[in-house]
Amino acid sequence: MTEFDSHTLAHLKKLCKISCTPEEEEDILNSLPRILEYAATLNEVNTDDVKPCSYVLSSMLKNQMREDEVNHLLPREQFLANAPDQIGGMIRVPPVLK
After folding, report:
1. How far is Cα 24 from Cα 32, in angstroms, rounded to an integer?
2. pLDDT of 16-31, one tens digit each?
3. Helix (H, G, I), strand (E, B), or coil: what is residue 87?
4. In Å, what is the CA distance from 63 to each residue of 45, 51, 59, 66, 82?
5. Residues 91 and 83: beta-carbon distance below 8 Å
6. Tens digit of pLDDT for each residue in 16-69?
7. For 47-77, b where at least 16 C-beta lie within 10 A, e where not — what string?
8. Rounded CA gap, 67 and 56, in Å?
9. Which of 12, 14, 24, 70 has a CB 3.0–4.6 Å from the CB of 20, allowing a cystine?
């Protein structure tokens, strides 16, 4: 495994465009080698018969759609009572584009 030192951390900070306090740097220097060592243990897992996938759950491979159903609707006055602002019986929202 590559040695992780303050020079490597400085390079990573530059690549990631982040800044750290000296305390955070010390914490990273102590914990990141252990994290990398743990991640390296994943190379020991036998994945010869496992097909590559982009989703963890097979149920995510298809869109989960349901039919639209019209249910009980609130009366307009009751619905608009919760709106912060309204105009002409519709909810008024701040403009997105000017």
Report:
1. 11
2. 999 999 999 999 999 9
3. strand
4. 31, 21, 8, 10, 32
5. yes
6. 999 999 999 999 999 988 888 898 998 898 988 888 877 677 666 677 788 888
7. eeeeeeeeeeeeeeeeeeeeeeeeeeeeeee
8. 26
9. 24
